[in-house]
Amino acid sequence: MKITIVTVGKLKEKYLKQGIEEYVKRLGPYAKVDIIEVSDEKAPENLSEAQMEEVKQKEGERILSKISQDAYVMTLEIEAKQLTSEKLASHMDSLATYGKSKVAFVIGGSLGLSDEVLKRSDFSLSFSKMTFPHQLMRLMLVEQVYRAFKIMKNEPYHK
């Protein structure tokens, strides 16, 4: 399986980079993982609704340009379906069974995802009703993808 994580913004925190690198390394036997960063738009605190949509639109165009046409797209959204780790594993396993070997996860910027990205999504996934920094979501996502592969292979997960 080929996993692509498309995310808005640069990851600056060394400790998050190290954690992500560790899980990507652990995923090596199961999947090829690419993490693609697209630049974020500068968004001052007091944007109008129209300006917020423009920011999401620009970021959305960058995101969509990095997703292959044949990829199954899973967007991370607060108001989406929440899954257990076992259900995520089952979902990913069924994708592989039915020939969907390219999976793209999308993590938006601070304002969320554009309507175009949401329309391209095949599955909307929520980790929680809480809001997390998108940098931290990268680490949480690669950990859960790793956990999903361990579950699919009936292998113990070393904490």
Describe the structure.
It is built from five helices and five strands; from the N terminus they run βαβαβαβαβα. It is an alpha/beta fold. A five-stranded parallel sheet has the order 2-1-4-3-5. The two termini are 24 Å apart. Belongs to the RNA methyltransferase RlmH family.
CATH class: Alpha Beta
CATH level 3 topology: Alpha/beta knot
Q: Helical stretch count?
A: 5
Summarize the main sheet: 5 strands, parallel
**Measured distance between first and last alpha carbons:** 24 Å
Judging from the principal axes of the Cα atoms, what is the shape? globular
Q: Strands of the largest sheet, in order across it?
A: 2-1-4-3-5
SS-based class: alpha/beta
| CATH superfamily descriptor | SPOUT methyltransferase, trefoil knot domain
* Helix amount: 40-55%
What amount of the residues lies in strands?
Answer: 15-25%
DSSP summary, beta strand count: 5
User: Rounded to an integer, what's the Rg over CA atoms?
Assistant: 15 Å
Query: How many domains?
Result: 1
Give the SSE string: EHEHEHEHEH
| Architecture per CATH nomenclature, i.e. the level-2 architecture | 3-Layer(aba) Sandwich
EC number: 2.1.1.177
Binding site for S-adenosyl-L-methionine: 76, 108, 127-132
InterPro entries: Alpha/beta_knot_MTases, RlmH-like, tRNA_m1G_MTases_N
Family: Belongs to the RNA methyltransferase RlmH family.
